[in-house]
């Protein structure tokens, strides 16, 4: 029984408030591939099925074992002996009838041998508990096909994720603490005129107490300029003096005591951030200087066409500044003053966006594409978020694993804290080596634990030697990783399931910023770390 | 006769309680199969270099988890569903779950134990049924109740309590309850009276998980400042100077609805009634149009009226998993538990920060230090009430104050019972001296944020 649009709105209400209807649409158009429906895999999928991913396909050649059922919510004991992909698909599908669930009873190795283009149909591929060789083979196929690849594994009390995507652009990064775009250091003409229209000294008390703090700061800045040779308050001392200047502007009662003017208090409180110079962040600057920005062709993705258009705006029309964002924070003021001020910013933003639009049009024309290929709505959204653009580029697995291009610096410097998360990464690489040599992971059976420690240590040493890593891996970690016996405890798999699913959603919706590129979770200490390897 | 009955009754109760502590209903077939607990056994049966100093590898630890260990999960919502799954798949079988809510459609995007057909049914019941059906041998016992419906005898039976609550008040109440169970002998805390509390919270893409050993580590109230009070819009903004669409909605909810009574006399605004919300939405649009404010949508209206917090499955999965890992560590002594607070945020990459929240020396809940109240004898009782509600470390909701005057227990002010509120309201404008209170006097304060009355010492300033 499928849901109607209205009931889907109800069901997904709590997440629509995070990524909007357009984000949800991206999610519903996506088809994700999961390789290996172990606990980690099914937990990741659960967190994609519940929010309504369009479709999933599980690729898994294994049969369900008793051990599998023990840690996996989506396998039941009457499926023991059956194909694991099929069994898991049934119970995952049951979670959400909006989603289309599929399975392929085949190992990824076989698919890579016989039909590597099988993977080309997916929006994203998630590989769980993959042996190193399979991981690298698949990584190469997906890299060449430009399909994002998310590698995940749970190994004892350690969780691991690796994102492999050539270039992922984000317009709506939704930063937690964004600075406002008020232009108080360089007010545009309409804002200047509006500020002029205020006469603080000549106002009645009610108006005085309900003037927006933006106007107050602007007015006192003018005063400060005239007394300080048109220089902004620069250091702490001057900013304090500036705040004092504003404070003196608070109306006084007949007795001479200052009245309660909250808007003036707001102005004083906001001086530090209001005086931040309007400028383009280095991050956005880097994006403007990106290769794709310079060479616009008919193949250029929309993101880069709009980036180029905004760059043109910055240089030709914006006086070195981005298009005005158009939003202001709430502040003590009467409705009319606030709305009027807000509209000044909004109208300027609209104006700037339409200039950007002209640039977009001419760029599209120059490569023979219709101007409708990028909508006004998209351009407006881009302009509003121009200060928060992000581009994530991950190195390929081949680069990470090659002796020539391994990130020695990152590994060595992180190993300075010998008990941080980097040693766990090296241990995961070492157990992979062990698997390559012995076709099994260390310590799976009790009797193996002791004897495997020295074997694993040889793997650690050969790994460090091969990459010329002059670091020390404590014996304790070698012992611990033998102890794990490649187990996949459910709670660690579930933590990873939540983490990985949200990264997948970020890739699919192009909202919020994915990690770059290696994430380690240590369930012993409940700590995490992200490395760029 | 009453005297001879008592010891027998007591004995029977003790036997009952002991039985309860070992096995709780277990008529279900364990349904074991080969390899079922392999993924857990590595941590219970094998020695390791990072285990807890008290840890002893044993094949019997699993039996303790399966047969004896009793866990209480508070909340069967976003975190609760995840917690139940995580615990059941970690070897815990004797689990109780408490939740006073029924299932709503908007829960279905993350509370995965519920389906469309379950809407309207009690969360605790449906959650328990689902887990018990999916995980053979697991025995989740549901309680469709408020946590305040239970007393110490209920809570005392559990080895560990995990909270997946959406209310700070409820958290503080649980915190107070576990503190009240602590036994001190000659000023020394009896460790067997400590019930560890694992607490998880989420909001959008942010979350936190913490481990509390009541009486030993920082409690909820020790770190109350970490939960800033909810900011409400000033009344003058709502009444005469709206600027944001939210102000328009609050105007309709707080001022227009009581005035127009659109669905009849005495019919309060039911945030879950779509007809009510539709009315509020329309009126909010009208209000907004009056002031040229844009942006009032149905979704925004609903969000403001219901104080909706956005939520997704992924954050709940992460935080619940961290909490469940801690439950496992503590129950098995396998590893040293989280010490003691982890925050998580995956808006930009994935960020966690783990730190040790410190105990507050004069914590109003766990420090056993009587709280001083410094007031002038001419201060009005209203000032004391304001202090109790506004102070960042106390943040009480509607404190009820009693004192012993002339040998008798007198209620100075109580808000939550209308008749008593009316009777004691005049006291608010009386001074402490007028009320007969003396320097050094003890005031007993009860509030929804704590199951136990808090004692304060009145200290007069000149």
TrEMBL record, chain A:
Highest taxon of the lineage: Eukaryota
Protein name per the record: NEDD8-activating enzyme E1 regulatory subunit
Any one GO molecular function term: NEDD8 activating enzyme activity
Upper taxonomic lineage: Eukaryota, Metazoa, Chordata, Craniata, Vertebrata
Function in brief: Regulatory subunit of the dimeric UBA3-NAE1 E1 enzyme. E1 activates NEDD8 by first adenylating its C-terminal glycine residue with ATP, thereafter linking this residue to the side chain of the catalytic cysteine, yielding a NEDD8-UBA3 thioester and free AMP. E1 finally transfers NEDD8 to the catalytic cysteine of UBE2M.
InterPro entries xrefs: APP-BP1, ThiF/MoeB/HesA, ThiF_NAD_FAD-bd, Ubiquitin-activating_enz
Cellular component aspect of the GO annotation: cytoplasm
Organism in which the protein naturally occurs: Oncorhynchus tshawytscha (Chinook salmon)
Gene: NAE1
GO biological process, one term: protein neddylation
Residue stretches making up the THIF-type NAD/FAD binding fold domain: 12-531
Pathways involved: Protein modification; protein neddylation
One Pfam family matching this protein: ThiF
Similarity comment: Belongs to the ubiquitin-activating E1 family. ULA1 subfamily.
Keywords from the UniProt entry: Ubl conjugation pathway
UniProtKB/TrEMBL annotation, chain B:
Pathway: Protein modification; protein neddylation
Pfam families, alphabetized: E2_bind, ThiF
InterPro entries noted in UniProt: E2-binding (IPR014929), ThiF/MoeB/HesA (IPR045886), ThiF_NAD_FAD-bd (IPR000594), Ub_act_enz_dom_a_sf (IPR023318), Uba3_N (IPR030468), Ubiquitin-activating_enz (IPR035985), UBQ-activ_enz_E1_Cys_AS (IPR033127)
MF terms (GO), sorted A to Z: ATP binding; NEDD8 activating enzyme activity
Broad enzyme group: ligase
Catalytic activity of the protein: ATP + [NEDD8 protein] + [E1 NEDD8-activating enzyme]-L-cysteine = AMP + diphosphate + [E1 NEDD8-activating enzyme]-S-[NEDD8 protein]-yl-L-cysteine
PROSITE patterns associated with the record: UBIQUITIN_ACTIVAT_2
UniProt-listed GO biological process terms: protein neddylation
Active-site residues, Swiss-Prot/TrEMBL: 236
Cellular compartments per GO CC: cytoplasm; nucleus
Keyword check for Manganese: no
EC number: 6.2.1.64
Keyword vocabulary terms for this entry: ATP-binding, Ligase, Nucleotide-binding, Ubl conjugation pathway
Domain E2 binding: 373-461
Database matches in PANTHER family: NEDD8-ACTIVATING ENZYME E1 CATALYTIC SUBUNIT (PTHR10953:SF233), UBIQUITIN-ACTIVATING ENZYME E1 (PTHR10953)
Similarity comment text for this entry: Belongs to the ubiquitin-activating E1 family. UBA3 subfamily.
Protein name listed in UniProt: NEDD8-activating enzyme E1 catalytic subunit
């Amino acid at each position: 029984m499928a849901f109607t649009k209205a009931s889907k709105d109800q069901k997904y209400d709590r997440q629509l408030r995070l990524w909007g209807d357009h984000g949800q649409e991206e999610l519903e158009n996506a088809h994700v591939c999961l390789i290996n429906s172990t606990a980690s895999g099914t937990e990741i999928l659960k967190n994609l099925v519940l929010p309504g991913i369009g479709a999933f396909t599980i690729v898994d050649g294994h049969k369900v074992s008793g051990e599998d059922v023990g840690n996996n919510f989506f396998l039941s004991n009457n499926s023991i002996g059956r194909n694991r992909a099929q069994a898991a698909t049934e119970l995952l599908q049951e979670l959400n009838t909006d989603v289309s669930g599929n399975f392929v009873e085949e190992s990824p190795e076989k698919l890579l041998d016989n039909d590597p283009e099988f993977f080309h149909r997916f929006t994203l591929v998630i590989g769980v508990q993959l042996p190193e060789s399979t991981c690298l083979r698949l990584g190469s196929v997906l890299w060449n096909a430009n399909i994002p690849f998310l590698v995940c594994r749970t190994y004892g009390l350690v969780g691991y994720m690796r994102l492999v995507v050539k270039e992922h652009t984000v317009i709506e990064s939704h930063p937690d603490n964004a600075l406002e775009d008020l232009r108080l250091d360089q007010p545009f003409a309409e804002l200047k005129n509006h500020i002029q229209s205020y006469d603080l000294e000549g106002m009645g008390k009610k108006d005085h107490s309900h003037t927006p703090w933006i106007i107050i700061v602007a007015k006192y800045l003018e005063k400060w300029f005239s007394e300080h040779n048109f220089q902004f308050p620069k250091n702490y001392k001057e900013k304090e003096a500036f705040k004092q200047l504003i404070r003196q502007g608070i109306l006084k009662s007949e007795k001479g005591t200052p009245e309660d003017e909250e808007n003036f208090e707001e102005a004083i409180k906001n001086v530090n951030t209001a005086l931040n110079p309007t400028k383009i962040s280095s991050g956005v600057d880097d994006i403007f200087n990106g290769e794709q920005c310079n060479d616009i062709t008919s193949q250029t993705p929309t993101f880069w066409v709009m980036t180029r258009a905004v760059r043109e705006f910055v240089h030709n029309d914006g006086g070195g500044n981005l298009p005005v964002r158009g939003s202001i924070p709430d502040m003590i003021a009467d409705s009319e003053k606030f709305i009027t001020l807000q509209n000044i910013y909004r109208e300027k933003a609209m104006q700037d966006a339409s200039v950007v639009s002209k640039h977009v049009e001419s760029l599209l024309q120059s490569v023979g594409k219709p101007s409708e290929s990028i909508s006004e709505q998209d351009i407006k959204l881009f302009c509003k978020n121009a200060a928060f653009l992000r581009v994530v580029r991950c190195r390929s697995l081949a680069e990470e694993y090659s002796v020539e291009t391994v990130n020695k610096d990152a590994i060595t410097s992180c190993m300075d804290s010998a008990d941080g998360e980097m040693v766990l990464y090296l241990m995961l690489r070492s157990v992979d080596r062990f698997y390559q040599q012995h076709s099994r992971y260390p310590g799976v059976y009790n009797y193996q634990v002791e004897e495997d420690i020295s074997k694993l240590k040889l793997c650690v040493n050969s790994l460090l030697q091969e990459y010329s890593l002059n670091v020390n891996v404590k014996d304790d970690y070698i012992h611990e990783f033998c102890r794990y016996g490649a187990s996949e405890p459910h709670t660690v798999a579930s933590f990873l399931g939540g983490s990985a699913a949200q990264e997948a959603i970020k890739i699919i919706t192009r909202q919020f910023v994915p990690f770059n590129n290696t994430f380690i979770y240590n369930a012993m200490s409940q700590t995490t770390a992200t490395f760029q390897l | 006769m009453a005297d001879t009955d008592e010891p027998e009754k007591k004995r029977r109760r003790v036997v009952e309680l002991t039985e309860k502590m070992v096995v709780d209903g277990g008529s279900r077939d364990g349904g074991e199969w080969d390899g079922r607990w392999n993924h857990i056994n590595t941590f219970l049966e094998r020695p390791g270099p990072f285990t807890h100093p008290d840890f002893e590898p044993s094949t019997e630890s699993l039996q303790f988890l399966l047969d004896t260990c009793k866990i209480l999960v508070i909340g069967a919502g976003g975190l609760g569903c995840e917690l139940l799954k995580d615990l059941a798949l970690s070897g815990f079988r004797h689990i109780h779950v408490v939740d006073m809510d029924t299932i709503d459609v908007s829960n279905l995007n993350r509370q995965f134990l519920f389906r469309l057909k379950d809407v309207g049914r009690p969360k605790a019941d449906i959650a328990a049924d689902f887990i018990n059906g999916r995980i053979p041998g697991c025995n989740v016992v549901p309680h469709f109740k408020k946590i305040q419906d239970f007393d110490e005898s209920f809570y005392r039976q559990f080895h560990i309590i995990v909270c997946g609550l959406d209310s700070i008040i409820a958290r503080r109440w649980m915190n107070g309850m576990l503190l009240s169970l602590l036994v001190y002998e000659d000023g020394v805390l009896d460790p067997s009276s400590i019930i560890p509390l694992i607490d998880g919270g989420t909001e959008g893409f942010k979350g936190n998980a913490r481990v509390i050993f009541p009486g030993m580590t920082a409690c909820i109230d020790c770190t109350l400042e970490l939960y800033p009070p909810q900011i409400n819009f000033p009344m003058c903004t709502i009444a005469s100077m709206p600027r944001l669409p939210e102000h328009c909605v609050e105007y309709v909810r707080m001022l227009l609805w009581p005035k127009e009574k659109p669905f009849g006399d005495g019919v309060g605004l039911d945030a879950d009634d779509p007809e009510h919300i539709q009315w509020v939405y329309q009126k909010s649009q009208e209000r907004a149009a009056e002031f040229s404010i844009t942006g009032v949508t149905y979704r925004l209206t609903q969000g403001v009226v219901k104080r909706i917090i956005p939520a997704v499955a992924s954050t709940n999965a992460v935080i619940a998993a961290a909490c469940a890992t801690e439950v496992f560590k503590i129950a098995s002594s396998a590893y040293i538990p989280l010490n003691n607070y982890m925050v998580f945020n995956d808006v930009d990459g994935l960020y966690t920060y783990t730190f040790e929240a410190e105990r507050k020396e004069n914590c109003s809940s766990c420090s056993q230090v009587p709280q001083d109240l410094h007031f002038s004898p001419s201060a009005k009782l209203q000032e004391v009430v304001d202090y109790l509600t506004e102070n960042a470390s106390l943040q009480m909701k509607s404190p009820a104050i009693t004192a012993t005057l002339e040998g008798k227990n007198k209620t100075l002010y109580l808000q939550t019972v209308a008749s008593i509120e009316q009777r004691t309201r005049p006291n608010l404008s009386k001074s402490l001296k007028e009320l007969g209170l003396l320097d050094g006097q003890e005031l007993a304060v009860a509030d929804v944020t704590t199951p136990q009355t808090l004692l304060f010492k009145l200290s007069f300033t000149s």
